[in-house]
Fold:
Amino acid sequence: MGRLPSRNLEDYKKNLNQNVCESNPRLIRNIFLIKLFGLMGVVVTMPFGIFALFNGNTTLSMMFIVISFVLILNYFFAIKREKYALSSNLIVYLFLCLFLYLVYSDGIENTGSLWIYVFPALALFLHGFKHGLIDIGIFALGMIMILYIPIDTPFMATYRDEYKSQLLLSFTTVAFFASLYEYSSAKSLDQVCALSKKLIDEAKEEQSVELANKRGIGEEYELLFAYAKEHDKNMSIVLADIDYLPDIKGRYGDDISEMVIHEIKQEIENCIKNSEAIVRWTGAEFIILLPKTVYNDACKFAEALKQRIKNMTLTHDNKPMHISLTTGVTDIENSHSIYAAIRNADNKMY
Structure:
C-alpha cells in the first residue's frame, strides 16, 4: 500500500478495526453468553432465590436475588456500553463466588455441590483457554480450602472424606475435558481466522505494486474522509491513468510494464503528503486521495504530477521510454459515495 496516513489517521484505523471486531467469532460467542446469563437472571436465578427463601435459607436466597439483578443490569450495561470484557469478568467471578458458597453451605437440600461442574465451561468460554485455566485453578483452590480446612460456623456443610475426594476428582475430570475441548476449539478457530485474514489481505493487495485494490478503496476512503471532516477541510480525488500501458505491455512484455507501474507508483508516493494516500484502482489507474485539499489545488497537483511523470527518465535496452499520465480531478462532498466520485473524476479525464 502507499504511504500510510499520519498518526491521527492511524487512530481512525484502530477505531475502525475495533468496530470490525464484531465479526470475531469469540466476541460473538461472549455476547451471546452475556445475553443468555441476563435471561438466566430472570428465569433461573430469581426463582432459585425465591425457592431458597421458602425453604428458610435467607442467606442463599438473598445471594440468588442479588445475583439475578446484577445479571440483568450487566446485560443492559454490556449492550449499552459495549464493555463485553468487563461484563464477562463480572459473570465469571460472580458465579465463582456463588458456586464456592454452594460448596460451603451445600445449597438447598444438599444439592449445592452439584453446580460446580458448570464453572469450568463457563470460565473457559468467557475467558478463553489460558485465563479460564487460571479461574479454574482459583476455584479448585477455594474448594480445597472449604473442604479440608475446618471452620466452625453454623452454615458450613459437613462432607464425608470419601465424598470430598470424589467431588474433587470428578471436578478435575470435567475441567480437564472442558479445557481440552476449549483448547482444540481455540486452535481450530485461530486457524480459520488466520486463513480468513490471509485471504482478505491477499484480496486487498496488488502483489506487484503493494497497493490496495478496489476492495480496499472503501476503508482507505473512510479513514481519510473522517480525517478531513474532523479538521473542517475539503477533500479531493485525482484519478491518474498511465497512457498506452497496454502498448508498453505488448511491446516490452509483462516485466517491463510492471516496472513502469512500480516506478510511477514510487514517483506518486514522493509527491503526496503523509495524510494522503494512493490506491491501485485498475491495471493502469491509480486513485490519489487528498484530504484538506480544495478542487483548484487538486487540479494544480494533478498538472504538476503529469509534468513530473513526463520528465521521468526510463530506459529499456538503452532506449528512452516516454511515459505520460491522463488525470481527472473532482472534489468529494458528504453526499457522494467514493464510487460516484471516481466516476465523476473519470468523466473529467484529459
Remarks:
- The chain has eleven helices and eight strands.
- Residues 211-347 form a domain with the Alpha-Beta Plaits fold (CATH 3.30.70.270).
- The beta strands are 205-206, 211-212, 235-242, 277-280, 285-291, 314-316, 319-321, 325-331.
